[in-house]
Amino acid sequence: MELYQKIYVKPSFLTTEHGKLACTACHGGDATDPDWRTAHDNVVRDPTFPDPAAICGDCHKDIVSSAVDSLHYTLAPMRLALDRRSSAAGKRALTTAFDRHCQTCHASCGQCHVSRPAYSGGGFLAGHNFAASPPMDTTCASCHGGRVHGEFTGTEEETEADVHYEDGEMTCRDCHPASEMHAAATGVQSRLDLPQRPTCRSCHEEVLAAGSGIRPHEIHGNRLACQVCHAQQYKNCFNCHAGTDKNGLPFFKSDKSRRMLKIGRNPLPSRKDPAAFVLLRHVPVSPRLFQAYGQDLLDRFSTLPTWKRSAPHSIRRFTAQNRNCNHCHGHAELFLNSKELAPWEKKANAGVAIPEGDIPPPVSDP
Questions:
Q1: What angle do CA 320, 325, 328 make, to 5 degrees?
Q2: Which of 81, 126, 288, 338 has its CA at 20 to 30 Å from residue 28's CA atom?
Q3: Alpha-carbon Rg of the chain, whole angstroms?
Q4: What does the alpha-carbon distance between residue 161 and residue 164 come to, in Å, rounded to a whole number?
Q5: Is 143 helix (H, G, I), strand (E, B) or coil?
Q6: pLDDT tens profile 36-86
Q7: DSSP letter at 101?
Q8: Strand 262-265 vs strand 241-244: parallel, antiparallel, or unpaired?
Q9: pLDDT digits over 126-159, tens only?
Q10: CB–CB of 277/266 below 8 Å?
């Protein structure tokens, strides 16, 4: 992005409610100082982080009160997962590592409604004009472009566009409205636990209810998550390593991702997600993830599985595995098996892997 695209303020902004405020009202600095060098002392680039209430609270009190605890703001499930993998001895060093690596991906109010997220380099969306509905391709894709956006729009290699995008011309916000994005996630173990999260039943109750007349649905009932049959292959990342270089700058390094589709047991069954079998995606975590910050920080590594429930955004009515029953039944490579797990993750995934004897055999009437 060119520099002028990052800093240009359109004249039309000055006539908006936000534009009527002085620059210093949000960003600080000294408007009375004629020397621009000193006038910009203490200027805050993003005044909406870490305390959005100080700037946005006067007009958006209800939104700010919950958004400060939202998934995008706190990354709480990630922090909780690492915390559960570590004993008390490693908590302090792990917090430092989380803040230097994971927390850099947070999204504040301004990084969705005014600019692109800082993680992707920033840059105004429309010359400092505030976007009530953040544009999908500019904001959402900035952080979720490596996987979700590519699956959804079909730009990911060997992936057809999601039917909701291709035929329904839907955007992220059609399924993930502001009520979900701003919702507090206090105590939420996973993004899938968020009460406001949509499910397939939110729109397709008639085809999932008993008596729908759709034979595969009647046969499998609630035993299979919809994505098991209706999603395409998706990216899985392995062996992520985080550390610092010789200059002390943090970095991530991971092996090349692999496209696959893995069926396993539901690690977090709930009333909202009762399916016994779901799609799983590998979490790029290993016992050596934050070794640069201390030895054995993840000493309770096997507390959580390294394969978590996945909801790929690559939905199609017909997929490779549902065109024929025997495209799934009898195909061991589609099911997560302990034999393909690294030695250090076998125990962690004992509850989600499918024993070889439990893989459904081919059916005679496919």
A1: 55
A2: 126
A3: 23
A4: 8
A5: helix
A6: 889 999 999 999 998 999 999 999 999 999 999 999 999 988 889 999 999
A7: T
A8: unpaired
A9: 889 999 999 999 999 998 988 899 999 999 888 9
A10: yes
